[in-house]
Amino acid sequence: MSFFDKIFGGKGEATEQKSFWKKIESEEDLQKAVESSFQHRIAIFKHSTSCFISKTVLKNFEKEIENLDQKIDLYYLDLLAHRPISNKIAEDLGVTHQSPQLIVIENGKAINNASHQSISVDQII
């Protein structure tokens, strides 16, 4: 592994998916996520798997979440694999697409969103 791969992560490096994420891979998954927002607040993290900034923001956010006392349903969307779903989120919730992006949803409506280095647990609580 080269010096830069150790710092930035090599192409062959597998991304470890944290267990608290619920994946959104279909419109049905998205619909279920939004429906659950009527029971409690949820958050969707839109991530570009090929972007170093997005990867860094995701790792930092995951560290914050692990220390959160409050339970919240967290959903993960791989933008490269599921771009049409990202477009549907933007259209249905009226939130301009960003990457990376965290969208907080309550009662079927986006109540907060942040992108890039502005993403933190503070947007959720």
Automatic annotation (TrEMBL):
Pfam family, one: BrxC
Gene3D superfamilies: Glutaredoxin
Name this protein carries in UniProt: Bacillithiol system protein YtxJ
Species name: Chryseobacterium gambrini
